[in-house]
């Protein structure tokens, strides 16, 4: 009991950043870094976009097993176990790359990473919601977003740059083997750290039988869809990231594609610099300022501004596609604008789901439902993005991305609030 109390009283700064960094790394490794890896290994854009999006289905379906995590062990237990599983599976991905059918094997293993990562997300959010008050949730939402985005910079920037350097010396396969092993090592180190530092998140709701477990699952589902304004909330969550779903998968492929094909013709290392150097500070700064912006104004007054900040900067990709600049600083400046807006606006969606959708008896499971719906809104356009970019070409495709932002603005303007800002439920 003593150890539980000590863990519960740990300062949020000692575990919120590391836990959400561990949440972001596998998601970005699949959503972005793996796409560039497969492109360098000769896989087509449409095949890359479809399969690397399809295996992310776990982040959409995670509500189906989120109630199980409410029934057994502690939330901390699942966080640590899934970090170990993710780390080991990244190592297996590395071993699959030299094989003849590497794409099939590596996609299957990345699907395991996705399932483990989605389960990790449920438990991590459960700790966050259980341990922190609504006031502290708002205070640390910026730190949460900054850590998640730092993982995006590291996985999609710094290690992509490393891969580019290693490709020149050792070839594409061995370069990405090193990167995948490094991803795995980071996750295992974080698991070891969280054994000591992560709060437990509270004991599970014990069930006495399988039938009782199914009854609990049904209650979780029923109470979620009985929430006030739930239809509005589902529509808002799906639409907020709809345009991003198209843009995020194609952007690094557009950077890599030859100028004659409508791309920017960047090397792998240059793409790493664009994301890891130009985007890094902007992303983290945007997330931190977004959190403090919400804390000062309240979420309801801030939401439309945050939605604009999140979606409007996708216009930089249309600009780059139309002008095809060969100056890395111009490209980097465009990425700075997009990443700052992304970081600033993303925290609004996360806090909305925490404070408007999750409150109630099953906070962790209901928040998992919300984030699962969010990822569905991201996954479907992401799966279609490769086919659409092949059909339209990069210029028209990124103009389409701007059109796809319009529903998000309407949803953010009209979505109702069922709970006051920053008040405990």
Hey, roughly how much beta strand do the residues contain? under 5%
CATH architecture assignment name:
Up-down Bundle
Please, what is the CATH homologous superfamily?
Answer: MFS general substrate transporter like domains
Overall helicity: over 70%
Total domain modules:
1
* H/E element sequence: HHHHHHHHHHHHHHHHHH
Quaternary structure of the protein: single chain
Number of contiguous helices: 18
Low-confidence stretches: 1-8
What is the fold-level CATH name, i.e. the topology? Growth Hormone, Chain: A
The largest sheet, given as strand count, sense and whether it forms a barrel, is:
none
Shape: globular
Report the CATH C-level class: Mainly Alpha
Mean pLDDT across residues: 86
Task: Provide the gyration radius in Å.
Answer: 21 Å
Total number of strands? 0
């Amino acid at each position: 009991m003593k150890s539980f109390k000590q863990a519960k009283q740990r300062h949020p700064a000692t575990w919120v950043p590391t836990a959400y960094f561990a949440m972001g790394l596998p998601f970005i490794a699949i959503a972005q870094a793996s796409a560039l890896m497969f492109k360098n290994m000769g896989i087509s854009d449409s095949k890359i976009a479809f399969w690397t999006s399809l295996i992310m289905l776990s982040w959409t379906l995670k509500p189906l097993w989120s109630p199980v995590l409410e029934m057994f062990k502690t939330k901390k237990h699942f966080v640590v176990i899934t970090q170990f599983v993710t780390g080991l599976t990244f190592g297996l991905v590395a071993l699959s790359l030299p094989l003849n059918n590497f794409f099939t094997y590596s996609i299957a293993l990345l699907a395991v990473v996705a399932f483990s990562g989605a389960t990790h997300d449920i438990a991590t959010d459960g700790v966050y919601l259980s341990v922190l008050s609504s006031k502290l949730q708002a205070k640390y939402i910026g730190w949460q977003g900054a850590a998640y985005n730092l993982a995006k910079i590291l996985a999609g920037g710094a290690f992509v740059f490393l891969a580019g350097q290693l490709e020149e010396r050792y070839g594409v396969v061995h370069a990405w083997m090193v990167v995948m092993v490094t991803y795995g090592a980071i996750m295992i180190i974080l698991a070891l750290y969280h054994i000591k530092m992560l709060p437990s998140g509270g004991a599970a709701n014990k069930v006495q039988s399988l039938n009782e477990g199914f009854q609990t699952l049904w209650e979780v589902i029923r109470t979620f869809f009985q929430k006030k304004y739930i239809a509005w909330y589902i529509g808002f969550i799906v639409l907020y990231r709809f345009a991003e779903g198209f843009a995020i998968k194609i952007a690094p492929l557009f950077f890599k594609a030859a100028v004659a094909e409508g791309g920017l013709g960047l090397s792998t290392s240059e793409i790493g610099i664009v994301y890891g150097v130009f985007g890094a500070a902007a992303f983290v700064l945007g997330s931190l300022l977004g959190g403090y912006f919400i804390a000062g104004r309240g979420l309801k007054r801030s939401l439309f501004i945050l939605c604009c900040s999140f979606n409007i900067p996708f216009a930089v990709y249309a600009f780059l596609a139309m002008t095809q600049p060969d100056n890395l600083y111009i490209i980097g400046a465009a990425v700075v604008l997009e990443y700052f807006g992304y970081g600033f606006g993303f925290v609004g969606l996360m806090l909305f789901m925490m404070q408007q959708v999750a409150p109630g008896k099953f906070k962790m499971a209901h928040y998992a439902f919300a984030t699962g719906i969010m990822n569905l809104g991201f996954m479907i356009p992401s799966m279609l993005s490769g086919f659409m970019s092949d059909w339209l070409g990069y210029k028209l495709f990124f103009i389409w991305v701007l059109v796809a932002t319009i529903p998000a603005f309407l949803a953010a303007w009209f979505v109702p609030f069922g709970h006051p800002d920053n008040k405990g439920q």
